[in-house]
Amino acid sequence: MIDSKHSLSQWSMAHNIRTLYETDIVEWSLKQAQLLRGRKFDLVDLENLIEEIEDVARRHKDVIEGLIENLLILILTVKYKPQQQTKSWDREVLICQAEIYKWIEKEPSLHRHALSSFRFCYKFARIKTSILHQIPLSTIPEECPEDVRTSVWDLINNEEAIG
Q1: Judgement on whether residues 122 and 63 belong to the same structural domain of the protein
Q2: 158: helix, coil or strand?
Q3: Total of domains in the chain
Q4: What pLDDT, in 10s, does the model give residues 52-83?
Q5: CA–CA gap between residue 106 and residue 56 (Å, rounded)
Q6: What is the pLDDT of residues 88-104, one digit of tens each?
Q7: Do residues 95 and 152 share a domain?
Q8: Are 64 and 104 in contact (CB under 8 A)?
Q9: CA-to-CA dists, residue 23 to 19, 35, 101, angstroms
Q10: Predicted local confidence at residue 1, as pLDDT
Q11: Residue 113 located in a structural domain
Q12: One domain, residues 33 and 79
């Protein structure tokens, strides 16, 4: 009889934790940490915890992709509208470079992700550059020009320029 009461209360607690995930993820996260610290692994909302851990990686990857897109937009803009290059533009490039370097230094695997997602980033940087700076999309090649690719990689990999 004790086992069934214990099982019922565990089920109830697990159900409440899953409901908490849907209604207050912050409270859910704190509760998961508490359960893990208390080594109450049987009460951990494992499915959602796995999903959240994977989401952490996705968010970091999204950040590096956004930064690479921004850097590409800056470089494409000057390539196709050279009059846009100003001292302010130069500062924006350096700030973007420093931000990329910061994220890669904190999370080295993001460098591999930057390499593997470059084509994807270029695809959307091309579209955004066209929209932002009223450059006909047909003017910007579908494949990243080699000089643009080289400029981006030189900036990403040149830690001496940052600090």
Answers
A1: yes
A2: coil
A3: 2
A4: 999 999 999 999 999 999 999 999 999 999 88
A5: 14
A6: 888 999 999 999 999 99
A7: yes
A8: yes
A9: 6, 18, 36
A10: 44
A11: yes
A12: no
Can you say whether the dihedral through the CA atoms of 85, 88, 94, 98 is positive or negative?
Answer: negative
What one-letter code names the amino acid at 17? Answer: I
Output the CA–CA distances (angstroms, integers) from residue 156 to 4, 17, 131, 151, in the order listed.
59, 43, 25, 9
Cα(62)–Cα(23) distance, rounded to whole angstroms? 25
Q: List C-alpha distances in Å: 60 to 100, 104, 110.
A: 11, 10, 8
Provide the residue range defining the domain that includes 130. 55-161
25 Cβ contact partners less than 8 Å away, ≥ 6 residues apart: 52
Query: CB under 8 Å to 64, separation ≥6 — which residues?
Result: 100, 103, 104, 110, 113, 114, 117
**How far is Cα 87 from Cα 89, in angstroms, rounded to an integer?**
5
What pTM, to 2 d.p., does this model score? 0.76
Token match 């409901």: residue?
19
Number of helical H runs and strand E runs in the chain? 7, 0
CA distance 138 to 146: 17
Asked if residue 2 has pLDDT above 50, the reply is no
